[in-house]
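Re: beginner question about structure tokens

> Can someone show what the tokenized structure looks like for a real chain? I only ever see the sequence side.

Sure, here's an example I had lying around. Input first:
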Amino acid sequence: MEFRSLHSYSLEDVVALWNEGFKGYFVDLTMTPDAFVRRLAGDQLSLKHSFALVKDGEPIGFVLNGLRRIDGKLVAWNGGTAVIPEYRLQGIGKLLMEEALKLYKREGVEEARLEAIKANEPAISLYKRFGYRVVDLLAFYRHEDTLATDAFLTEEASKAATNCNLVQGIPQDVQRLSFYAAELPWQSQWYAIQNGQSYVAYEQGQAVGYALFKRLFDEQGRHTSTLLYQCVTAPGYVHGNDMKARLLQQVFGSHEPIARRTMNWSSSHQEVVALLQEAGFGIQTEQVHMKLIMV
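And the corresponding structure tokens:
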């Protein structure tokens, strides 16, 4: 067996390997070539730093990686590890992880990150054996159809609205805020949100909160869903919960019958979780966020 860069394969072959590797997974991750290309670009994944394990000339498993400098340190993200069905439970995952860590060391990676479905205990155990630790529980919250007219609207949130100025912009606008949440998962970061938007809340000229989100539209230009990535307020800001409610109302508050979702929502952001649950959002999927400090 040997390892081979995914960069040496055609797009069609890589997509076929992805789909075969995730056959029978907890959620359907089947992709078309166009969807795969969009994911590579949107998640800043690198075929150069990704590889397949090859046996008798055929790939039997792979790791898809992205590398990026975050807060001055080089971070690697494992954006997908899978083994094709006939080679599962044969130690292939262990070989893939060993090679991934060798690659990270060669590249000078200082921190490695990944997410795993919470119910995927074998994968989580494998990652732990290589030194990864669970740092957070993540959830995908979802609300279908029409949102209640008073969702997120409280007297305190209304006061927050009158005392602040919300500036709409693009995801890049939040990256230099002193309280930007760079520790959140890779796909929730500003650089991974293609065609996204932001709101930054200012009070007396100072930034006190922000939200990162994306609105999706169908081929007829109709708004079909809104996806929330982050909703954060500055540490010590006394009206933090009210401002979060104000930002949620601004992002989700239309009365259109659309899907409203969150992306990898951190369980540590309890104020927003409580506001979402009160508005009728439910958990669709749960993951764990894992990190490894490279030495």
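Each token stands for a local structural state, so reading them left to right follows the chain. The chain has a mean pLDDT of 92.
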